[in-house]
TrEMBL record:
CDD domains assigned: Glyco_tranf_GTA_type (cd00761)
SUPFAM superfamilies: Nucleotide-diphospho-sugar transferases
Ranges that cross the membrane: none
Protein name according to UniProt: Glycosyltransferase family A protein
InterPro entries xref list: Glyco_trans_2-like, Glycosyltransf_2, Nucleotide-diphossugar_trans
Entry EC no(s): 2.4.-.-
Keyword vocabulary terms for this entry: Glycosyltransferase, Plasmid, Transferase
Pfam families: Glycos_transf_2
Any one Gene Ontology molecular-function term assigned to this protein's record: glycosyltransferase activity
Native organism: Shinella sumterensis
Length: 331
């Protein structure tokens, strides 16, 4: 690893005045960071001034304002275009970096993308430090990455699309890779799939340097039906190229079917909410092949809700933070 390589941290922010300062300060505290680019994506609160208040006077902070909301993909693409550092790192506006994150990542050789572990943290525990995991670097292939985003009954939710890798600008430029601006859900997943198809060496380490704050009002939990449709169509578009290796193609088709089911269920519920039972019945008549999966998903959701209501004892408290990647502490 070339020691003088520096990192640009990109933060797309929409109505993030309560959290943007923490995100900016955590990025500026990393010695390897040469640029922090905040794009205020049409906020109607004090996000802009809160970001500016976090400046450390090192002249590394650049704040850009979109007058209207254009979405995280457009904000990130603009930040990539105006920045210069050879390494690019994405930070969500309500998250933060732990100290030493980039030092551990940049110590690993031979990669185009490198991601570390993520600690999912409730707001009440933000002062906690992550466990001390050894890096244990491994290469992540396309099939394994896609399979790591597929939810399975009785298993933890597939979450590898949540990884926040450092990306080499040279690789992105060489393969004309940018975020799809018509997507507001799964835009990271879709970009990583295209990068892996282009031959990206994607390294993952178990060390934890990224804190993801779990909040009930997070924008990531407010996606619309058309966001699911855009993800579904984007994946179908990649599959239609015919250049996906067979093992990865099988995994992508499984993932695509799962997204298609979620979209069909959301569409059905939208029709019922907007037009009542008659509109829902019309949708069922128009889409008979989708109804068995929709009925199964509705039944599953109702059973899970009933189980939560019937639970009389509180859940046992979790011992420690929840991590995206399984890992063992070094001490």
């Amino acid at each position: 690893m070339i020691q003088q390589e520096k990192v640009c941290v990109i933060i797309a922010a929409k109505n993030a005045e309560k959290t943007i300062g923490r995100a900016v300060r955590s990025a500026l505290a990393q010695p390897e960071v040469d640029e922090v680019v905040v794009v205020d994506d049409g906020s109607d609160d004090r996000t802009l001034s809160a970001a500016a208040a976090a400046d450390d006077t090192s002249r590394r902070l650049d704040i850009i304002r979109f007058r209207t909301n254009r979405g995280p993909s457009a904000a990130r693409n603009h930040a990539i275009a105006v920045s210069r550092a050879p390494l690019i790192s994405i930070l969500d506006a309500d998250d933060f970096f732990f100290p030493g994150r980039f030092r551990r990542m940049l110590a690993c050789p031979d990669w185009d993308f490198i991601a570390d572990n993520i600690a999912f943290m409730p707001e009440a525990e933000l002062t906690r430090q992550p466990d001390d995991f050894a890096p244990r670097p491994r290469r992540l292939g396309l099939a394994d990455f896609v399979l790591g985003n597929i939810s399975r009954r009785g298993a933890p939710r597939g979450e590898l699309g949540f990884l926040k890798p450092v990306m080499r600008r040279a690789f992105l430029d060489a393969h004309d890779l940018r975020y799809r601006e018509d997507m507001r859900l799964g835009e990271d997943y879709e970009l990583y799939v295209r990068a892996l198809l282009a031959g990206a060496r994607y390294t993952v380490i178990e060390s934890c340097g990224y804190g993801a704050v779990v909040r009930a009002d997070s924008l990531s939990g407010q996606h619309r039906t058309k966001d699911l449709e855009a993800l579904y169509e984007a994946e179908r578009s990649i599959l239609s190229t015919g250049n996906v290796p067979s093992e990865a193609e099988h995994a992508m088709r499984r993932h695509c079917r799962q997204i298609g089911r979620r979209h069909a269920l959301r569409h059905f519920l939208d029709r019922k909410r907007e037009g009542g039972a008659r509109a829902a019945l019309a949708y069922a008549v128009e889409n008979p092949s989708a109804m068995p999966a929709i009925a199964a998903d509705i039944l599953r959701d109702k059973l899970q809700a009933a189980q939560r209501r019937m639970r009389t004892e509180p859940s046992a408290p979790q011992d420690g933070l929840r991590y995206l990647l399984p890992a063992s502490a070094t001490r």
